Amino acid sequence: MNQMTDKKIFEVPLYAYERSPDQDADAPVRHKVAVIGAGPIGLGAAIDLAQQGVEVVVLDDNDKVSFGSRAICFAKRPLEILDRLGCGQEMVAKGVEWQLGKVFFDERQVYEFNLLPEEGHEFPAFINLQQYYFEEYMVNRVRAMQAEGAPIEIRGLNKVLSVKDRGDHVSLIVDTPDGDYTLEADWLIACDGAGSPTRAMMGLDFVGRVFEDNFLIADVIMEAEFPTERWFWFDPPFNRGQSALLHKQPDGVWRIDLQLGWDIDKDEEKKPENVIPRLKAMLGEEVKFELEWVSIYTFQCRRMEKFRHGRVIFAGDSAHQVSPFGARGANSGLQDTDNLGWKLKLVIDGIAPESLLDSYDVERVHGADENILNSSRSTDFITPKSEMSRVLRDAVLDLSEHYAFARPLVNSGRLSVPCTYDGSPLNTPDALQGGPARSRPGSPCADAPLGDGYLLPHLGGRFTLLTIGTDAPENLETEGLSVHRLALEATPEVTERYLGDAASAVYLIRPDQHVAARWSAYDAAAVETALKRAIGKE
Fold first, then answer.
1. What is the mean pLDDT of the chain?
2. What gap in Å lies between CA 467 and CA 455, rounded to an integer?
């Protein structure tokens, strides 16, 4: 029996219901920010805001972490975000690290790929970790912050029944074991999942595609000799005409995905007497295993048309959905909150106009569209919709075994990478001639070794002026902001990732560690103009 089953994390109320003072108040109590949903995205948003001193209350209709491993693949960029939130190291310590993937066609391996071929990064390309651990670590982080006096609260068994945007605040009716009460918030962040009751209450919906296919997703406990890699099969002998995926998780748990097709009886397919023979056909009759969790998914690639609706802002699955191939769900949701937190803080503090929040909509809709495009292409490649499409796909797979040019055409799930906000209204036009394209304005900062540490923790969650081979003031005070300078030596990694062919460089880095602007040398007026643009004042 694995450690998770012994601990029964998902059966223990980690944020048990307690009557709050709001329920006994004569008038509705106003909070700065309310978050609906205590999953990874809701807690990520709340922790981010509370670390910046913003008072936030999280409302959830449950009182414990989710059952089943659900999301398991967490990419390098979200791990870097989680490190800033105080959970990244714990995630990596428990998770299974991997960066190598293998692609099989029929019974043969056609090629393999490395997701992080370069050195000099603090975090791995990916880890696999059950979602219940992730949620437990985040709840523990909230408890630690509360002990330090941070303005953050989780209210379990607080189910939101009504959401009304009143113009200058949002009014909520909340159901509890002790009855209903009314709560107000200056801002509301809806992180209540793909079925988002908040979205339904506001009469909003998704646009996009629902794919006519079903996949069996099973977590099994077994002792196996498979390496710590991502294995994906097209048309394997144990699942003819379909696909399969195998991933290792902690505690001897393995994730298996099996394509089933469209016209199936979902209730029948989930029964152990039907699941177990499929798994034995894949793993072998001699392999001993135990089912831990089984589900069937119909994949959707859809999003809301807008993520911000007045004082209600949507993030994560409540705003967008993709197929799990490529690990773009939870990973992109954490990038939503990373984009939103600093902007909302500046608006609350009166430093930036409310219109800055429209850039959250612009940038994260762009990110969602990128994820939906990649996810749709993955699903179309995995499940060809015509015989001609299947013939073409199989020819690409055959060629990929011997010819490198064909491998980029194989799509078993383009794996999650952070979005570059090309065309964002917060970007200043690129002024670094010869600078590397990977660090152009809008790009997420690449990590790099700095002495005995790494670059990204030094950037923190604030505006930073990063300089290489040129001078600049150590601190700038402008537009109500303090901008700290970080001077880097032109090491091989820094040169490749930030300097390129330029002799020197100055970067303005946003609090979410995306590049706002860059130049070859410091210019006070140019920096001030770029900073104004980055906070929505230009």
1. 92
2. 12
Read off the tokens for 134: 């992730």
Angle among Cα 395, 327, 37 to the nearest 5 degrees reads: 150
Domain boundary among 342, 369, 396: 369
Q: 317 and 269, same structural domain? A: no
Among 301, 246, 319, 317, smallest CA distance to 73 is for: 246
Q: Residue 94 in 3-state DSSP?
A: helix
Domain range for 525: 437-534
pLDDT at 451: 85
Using one digit for the tens of pLDDT, what is the confidence trace for 369-408?
988 888 788 888 888 888 999 999 999 999 999 999 999 8
Query: What's the rounded Cα separation, in Å, for the pair 412 and 382?
Result: 6
C-alpha to C-alpha distances, 513 to 152, 243, 322, 442, 443, nearest whole angstrom: 24, 37, 25, 10, 9
d(CA 348, CA 128): 36
140 and 221 housed in the same domain: no
Q: Is residue 374 part of a domain?
A: no
Tokens linked to 205 = 């919906």
Whether the pLDDT of residue 327 is over 70: the answer is no
Residue 483 tokens, joined:
């901008």
Amino acid at 293: W
Bridge partners of 221, per DSSP, are 253, 290
For tokens 């005070």, the residue is: 477
Q: Which residues contact 11 (CB under 8 A, 6 or more apart)?
A: 64
Amino acid letter, 96? V
For residue 101, being part of any structural domain is answered with: no
Give the span between the Cα atoms of 44 and 330, in whole angstroms: 11
Query: E-assigned strands of 73-210?
Result: 73-75, 96-98, 100-105, 108-114, 126-128, 152-155, 159-165, 170-176, 179-190, 206-210
Cβ(64)–Cβ(11) below 8 Å: yes
Rounded to 5 degrees, what are φ and ψ at 299?
A: -80, 145
User: Residue 269: which H helix or E strand, with range?
Assistant: helix 266-269
Residue 187 pairs with which residues in a beta bridge? 33
pLDDT by residue (tens digit) across 161-181? 999 999 999 999 999 999 999
Instruction: Tell me how long the chain is.
Output: 538
Q: Do residues 156 and 38 lie in contact, with contact meaning Cβ atoms separated by under 8 Å?
A: yes
Q: Do residues 482 and 443 touch, judged by C-beta distance below 8 A?
A: no
Distance of alpha carbon 420 from the chain centroid: 14
221 and 204 in one domain?
Answer: no
414: its two tokens: 């383009």
> Looking at the structure, do residues 292 and 441 belong to the same domain, yes or no?
no
Looking at 177-299, which runs of residues are DSSP E strands?
179-190, 206-210, 214-222, 230-234, 243-248, 253-261, 289-297
Do 11 and 137 fall within a single domain? yes
Residue 223 sits in the same domain as residue 188: no
The string of DSSP letters for 400-466 reads HTT-GGGGGG--S-PPP-PPP-TT-TTPPPPB-TT--GGGSTTPBPPP-EETTEEHHHHHTTS-EEE
Residue with tokens 């490649």: 381
